[in-house]
Design brief:
This protein has 2 helices and 11 strands. By secondary structure, the protein is mainly β. The protein has one domain. Strands 1, 2, 3, 4, 5, 6, 7, 8, 9, 10 and 11 form an 11-stranded mixed β-sheet that branches. The relative contact order is 0.17.
Length: about 180
């Protein structure tokens, strides 16, 4: 699976060309719908994960998360994920919690071993919860750093940024994938 993911990154040009400073990256405008976003060292284009609400502000059970690119390097236009990106890299699968209304177990294509939960807090308000640095947290964004210096490119590390659910303090975790 890891090899398939690396090949997918290679095929779609998602492997870094150079190391760029994260502070230089544009940050998507926060909206009521935005759950979190992913940035990568390849370029400034960003993957955004929005909550998908109906007209009354409830999560749409059949598709509670909308995932798309903001192509900052192409006039900041929105672009839908390609099917292969959905399957192997940035797509999500959501399964409704049977015991809790408006809560979903979320599996990310590239991080199936990590647990995420989509929880509706109020009409038009939801969040992604996970453990960051072994503490219950709300995910705000991720950063993926991949290395292209070898024969096969590989993800070197993933950084998670969020807020501790109990204290509200910022929290961070770096996950080395080597």
């Amino acid at each position: 699976m890891k090899w398939t993911f690396t090949l997918t990154l290679l095929l779609f040009g998602l492997i870094p060309l150079s190391n760029k400073e994260l502070s230089d990256y544009p940050v998507p405008t926060k909206s009521d719908e935005m759950l979190f976003y992913i940035q990568r060292n390849h370029n400034k284009n960003t993957i955004v994960y929005d909550a998908n609400f109906d007209n009354e502000g409830q999560l749409i059970a059949s598709r509670p998360i909308d995932v798309y690119w903001i192509r900052y390097e192409e006039d900041s236009r929105r672009m839908e994920l390609r099917n292969i990106e959905k399957m192997f890299a940035y797509g999500v699968k959501c399964e409704a919690e049977k015991l809790h209304k408006n809560q979903f177990i979320v599996k990310m294509a590239a991080a199936e071993d990590r647990s995420f939960r989509l929880i509706q807090k109020a009409p038009f308000r939801a969040e992604i919860q996970t453990l960051i640095n072994n503490e219950p947290s709300v995910l705000e964004h991720m950063y993926i750093f991949a290395d292209n210096s070898g024969f096969w490119p590989k993800v070197d590390y993933i950084e998670l940024f969020g807020k501790n659910r109990n204290t509200g303090n910022s929290i961070y975790e770096k996950i080395d994938t080597n």
